[in-house]
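Long-time lurker. I teach an intro course on protein structure, and each term I like to show students one example going from raw sequence to a predicted 3D structure in token notation. This year I'd like something fresh instead of my usual example. Would anyone be willing to generate the tokens for the chain below so I can use it in lecture? Attribution to the forum is fine with me.
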Amino acid sequence: MTAAAHPRTLAQKVWDDHVVVPGTDGQPDLIYIDLHLLHEVTSPQAFEGLRLAGRTLRRVDQTIATEDHNTPTLAIDRPIAEPTSRTQIETLRRNAEEFGVRIHSLGDREQGIVHVVGPQLGLTMPGITVVCGDSHTSTHGAFGAIGFGIGTSEVEHVMATQTLPLKPFKTMAINVEGTLRPGVTAKDIILAVIAKIGTGGGQGYILEYRGSAIRALSMEGRMTICNMSIEAGARAGMV
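-- Reply from a regular --
Happy to contribute to a lecture. Here you go:
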């Protein structure tokens, strides 16, 4: 069947471009991952799994770590007071050094929120797949990428193989037309969408946002909308 006879959405095109082995008989596709973002909370067990299995990272050049979940916003030059947070940060630093992973630690000018580091460093690009052990990885969809959160066992799988076995997500178009009135922001748009479809309305879907109101948004506004797709229960959001 030709592409014209079987049109695809943006999400479907990106997905199809990343299928390494297509699933058959109800089995998942094997999807290639272009960018893997790590932080201190969901990576320790994954690194330990690699260590116990005697494995290295498949694509260390496509893996980047930053400290962002359990980090202070003040006095970052001092030792972290909270014991669990301090242990997680120290563990990430040791693991990054052992496995050769690029890391942006506290005090590094490029350290920051994991969902922002990728875009600000020019690593998040249209048409790529991005994963991280955090549900709000959907933020990267603002750049025309498929970004979604994964669990710790999946983090280890990507570390070892740079792939994930997944069944294709469903897609849902969200059309937002018109001009926003003064004081109305991207967050108001996504809250209105969630109110319309419900907090579980997007389960199993990639929400694809389109329409004149979406096109008029800044990149920061688009990031906000894709980020909060998770609050609608979706796996990802895209513009």
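Some talking points for your students: The chain has two domains: 11-166, 170-237. The CA atoms of residues 57 and 159 lie 5 Å apart.
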